[in-house]
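Researcher: We plan to redesign the surface later, but first we want a full-length starting point. Tokens attached.
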């Protein structure tokens, strides 16, 4: 059954999970997923208001807001979860892991596909903002606190504001090991400081000769 798969999925994605009863009672991400399935079923039956009411109840109980129109694959897990917002036309694949504060938002007022499509095996770190009808490829990782506005290829890690790519996705090692990425922001800053030092040195040269 899918409920059993969901519970096993918690144990596979969260090393802090200690027992089935604890998971059933204390994991808001799991509660939000189950309530969303009910809301989505009502939505697909054309019962928009009841679907929105279930979604609203889920938000009040869990702190996680998932529009009932969102399509979610199997073994989806939101860890901690508070402050997560997932917009109406979002599509989420299988085996996706998401943390608290993530926003999958839209960038258009038109009634069309305006939210992200998340591939299989994707990890989205805490506080990441993913906006627009973009696609995040399979096994990609989005670093915590990133702002993502463009498509992400498969097997790629992105991080920063705006998010930029680094090598390797979740298949390159531990799916939670976001720290092992190329620090291109640090590299660029070091290059800028080096260039400033060279400019200062060049500017001092003529002055010293006149003295």
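Model: Full-length starting sequence:
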């Amino acid at each position: 059954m899918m409920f059993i798969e969901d519970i096993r999925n918690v144990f596979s994605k969260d090393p802090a999970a200690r027992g089935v009863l604890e998971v059933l009672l204390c994991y808001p991400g799991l509660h939000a997923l189950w309530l969303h399935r009910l809301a989505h079923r009502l939505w697909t039956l054309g019962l928009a208001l009841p679907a929105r009411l279930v979604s609203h109840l889920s938000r009040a109980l869990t702190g996680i807001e998932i529009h009932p129109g969102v399509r979610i694959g199997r073994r989806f897990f939101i860890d901690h979860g508070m402050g997560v917002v997932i917009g109406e036309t979002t599509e989420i694949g299988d085996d996706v892991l998401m943390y608290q504060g993530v926003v999958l938002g839209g960038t258009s007022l038109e009634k069309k596909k305006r939210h992200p499509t998340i591939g299989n095996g994707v990890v989205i770190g805490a506080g990441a903002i993913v906006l627009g009808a973009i696609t995040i490829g399979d096994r990609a990782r989005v670093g915590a606190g990133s702002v993502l506005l463009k498509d992400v290829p498969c097997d790629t890690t992105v991080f920063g504001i705006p998010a930029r790519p680094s090598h390797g996705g979740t298949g390159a090692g531990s799916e939670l090991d976001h720290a092992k990425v190329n620090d291109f922001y640090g590299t660029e800053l070091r290059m800028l400081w080096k260039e400033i030092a060279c400019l200062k040195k060049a500017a001092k040269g003529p002055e010293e000769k006149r003295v």
